[in-house]
Write a structure and sequence with these properties.
367 residues; Uridine Diphospho-n-acetylenolpyruvylglucosamine Reductase, domain 2; Uridine Diphospho-n-acetylenolpyruvylglucosamine Reductase, domain 3; 3 domains; binds flavin-adenine dinucleotide
Length: 367
Amino acid sequence: MQLAELTTLRVGGPAERFVEATTVDALVEAVLEADAVGEPWLVLGGGSNVLVGDEGVEGVVVRVATRGIERLADVSGSARPVRLRVQAGESWDALVAHTVEYGWAGIEALSGIPGSTGAAPIQNIGAYGQDLAESLVSVEVLDIESGERRTVPAPDLELGYRTSALKQGWRAVVLSVDLALERTDGARSRPVGYAQLADALGVSVGDRAPLAGVRSAVLALRASKGMVLDEHDPQSVSAGSFFTNPIVTESFALRLPGDAPRWPQQPEPAPLVVPLGSEPATPPEPVEGTVKLSAAWLIEHAGIARGFALPGSGASVSTKHTLALTNASGRATAGEVAELARYIQTRVASEFGVVLHPEPVFVGIAL
Ligand SMILES: Cc1cc2nc3c(=O)[nH]c(=O)nc-3n(C[C@H](O)[C@H](O)[C@H](O)COP(=O)(O)OP(=O)(O)OC[C@H]3O[C@@H](n4cnc5c(N)ncnc54)[C@H](O)[C@@H]3O)c2cc1C
C-alpha cells in the first residue's frame, strides 16, 4: 500500500505492512501485537496532518476505520448537557454535520476540517474561534506502556494551541472521544468568536447565529482558501496549514514591523516556589506576556508569494492561502514538500528572526 493513497498531500512511499482496523478490538490487537515484537507501527486516520517520506514506513500502518456515534445520557444542570461518544474512525466533518442537524452547539465552527475524530485531540483541532478542548470531556485510549484501555479526562491531555500530550510523545491510541454539547433554543451556535466569520454572518463577535448558517459560512470561507478537501480543487491537495502561528514574547514582537498582526496570549502565571514551612515574602514577579504572530503574514512579508515554487519542484505554496503547501501539480515528492518548507523557514528566520514550526506530523522524513 502506497501511503500517497492514504494522505491528503498525496505523497509518501509504501507501508511495509498495512492493516485496516474496523473494530476497537482489531485496532488494539494490531498495535499491541506489533509493539510487543518491536515492529514499528503508525496509526493513521484520514492522513490529513502527516508528511510521510518517499521511502515509506517501516513496520505496520494501522488505519483506524472504527465507526459509531452514540448518544449518552444527558447531564442535567450542565450548560452542555448533550453527551456523545464517538468512535475514533468516524469522519470529523460528518460528526459536525450530524451535531448541526440535531441542533447541538459547540463544534460548528470546526466544520470542514478533514480527518478522523480520533485524531482531533492529537493537535486539539481548532478554527474560526473554536477548538476541540472547549467541547471535549474525555477520551478512551489504549495506553501502550501498560497495554491497557483507560479513560483520560480532557484536562489531563495537556491540550493547547495545536498540541497535546499525545502529539508530544505520549504513546497512546485514541479509541473514542466523549463530547459535551449545548442544546440551544432555535438551534443557535455558540457565541461567534472570530471576526471574519462574524462578518460573513452579518453578526458581531460574541453573538450567536443559526447553527446551519455558521456551518455554511465556515465551509464557504474554507473553500475560498482551499482549506476544505475538494477533488476539483488542486489547491486543497495539502495538509492544511503547514506551519503554526509562532508565539513570541511581547518585547520581541515590538521589534517587528508595526503592521505585523499579533494577538496577545493569556500570560502563564510564574511558578511560586515556597520553602516548606515558610510564607511567601514577596509577590511573584509579573511574567512577560506573549503574543501570537501570523505565520502567513511573516511568509508573505519574507517575499514568498502565493503560488511560489522552487525551480523544477512539484510542491508549491497554495495560490489561495500562504500557509498551505500543496501538491497541486500532482507530481510532488515528500522530499520536495520538505525542501519548500525548509526554504520558507530559512527566509522567515533571516527576515524576522522567527523560526516557524511545522504543524503536520513527520513520518520517515525530517525538516
Ligand atoms: C485542507 C485541510 C484543512 C485543514 N484545516 C485544519 C484546521 O482548520 N484546523 C486544524 O486543527 N487542522 C486542520 N487540518 C489538519 C487535519 O485535518 C487535522 O489535524 C485532523 O485532525 C487530522 O486528522 P487525520 O485523521 O487525518 O489524522 P492523520 O493525518 O491520519 O494523523 C495525524 C497524527 O495523528 C495520529 N493519529 C491519528 N489517529 C490517531 C488515533 N486514533 N490515536 C492516536 N493517534 C492518532 C497519527 O499517528 C499522526 O501522528 C487541515 C488539513 C487539511 C488537509
